[in-house]
Structure formats: structure tokens, C-alpha cells
Amino acid sequence: MSTLPALPKKPLPAGRPRAWYVAHNRQLKAMRLAIALLDTGVYTAEQACDHTIHATAQRIGVHPPSPVTCRLVRSLLP
């Protein structure tokens, strides 16, 4: 399976409230975790307990997610 080339990162728009950046980064992290969970065979929110999400975060090299991020990850899974 070939991988797609990495897209260059664009800077976030300036002038937004701090809460917007926090929510945006949380959503990006949740999407990365949800994709990693799907790749490992976790296909439903019921299968994605906090321990599974934390283990996946450690495996892909991101900081442990907060409970809010874990809920967001589960909401992204079918």
C-alpha cells in the first residue's frame, strides 16, 4: 500500500480567540486518533474505551488525550 505525499502545513489564521485554536487543535487530534483506531480494527464507539484511545495515542506518538478529546474521538466513530 503506498502512502500519499504529506501536504505542507499552513499556519493557522491570526486574530481568532484562544478558545478557537484550542478547539481546532482538539478536533485535529481527535481525527488523527480516530483514523489510527480505524486502522487498528476499532470500528465502533463502544470498542473505543479511554484505555484503548490512550494506548493508540501513545502508539502514534501524541500526548495522552483529555476526557473531552476521548469523547470527541468516540463521536467521530460510527
Describe the structure.
By secondary structure, the chain is mainly alpha-helical. The chain has one domain. Helices cover 55% and strands 0% of the residues. The protein has helices at residues 18-39, 50-60, 67-76. Helix 1 packs across helix 3 (67-76). The two termini are 25 Å apart. The model has no long low-confidence stretch (mean pLDDT 90).
List the helices and strands and how they pair.
Elements: H1 18-39, H2 50-60, H3 67-76
Helix pairs in contact: 1-3
| Average pLDDT reading | 90
Shape: globular
Task: Give the low-pLDDT segments.
Answer: none
Classification by helices and strands: mainly alpha
Q: How many distinct beta strands?
A: 0
- Helicity, as a percent range: 55-70%
Overview features:
78 residues; mainly alpha; 0% strand; globular; 3 helices
Can you give me a brief rundown of this structure?
The protein is built from 3 helices and no strands. The protein is globular, with a radius of gyration of 14 Å.
